[in-house]
Structures are given as C-alpha cells and as structure tokens.
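Sequence and fold
=================
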Amino acid sequence: MNTDINEYFGQFVSDKRSGNFLSEEGAFVKAVRYGHWVVLDELNWSPSEVLESLIRIFDANQELYIPELNSY
C-alpha cells in the first residue's frame, strides 16, 4: 500500500460549520514540527512526488516546503 502525499504533508479540508477550507497538517509535518521521530520504511517504494517533497528536508537547508499548502 502506498501512502498518499496528503497523508504525509497535509491537505485542505472543508470546515463543516463555516464551509471554509482549512489546512490540515499530515503526519510527517506534525512529526517534524513537534520534534518526533519519523520512520520512513521502504521509502524507495514511495511515489516520486513524495520523494521530491522530502528532498529539501534532507539537504543542507533542512526546510520542508509544501507546495499544496504554499508554506514552509
């Protein structure tokens, strides 16, 4: 089973009360933000969009940019 990029990084979800769209962080973003450990088992099986998004966190900049949410 491949994990969808939204599960890693997040997505926009509709607020049931207001109908507005809110950004919802994914599991990877939450772990990085709060300093938790992350185990990326069999990462080589991930879709290319997931791998491309992870590259920045592993390079010297150590930034995580999420284009879908337009945020670092």
Summary: The chain has one domain: 5-58. The mean pLDDT is 82. The radius of gyration is 13 Å.
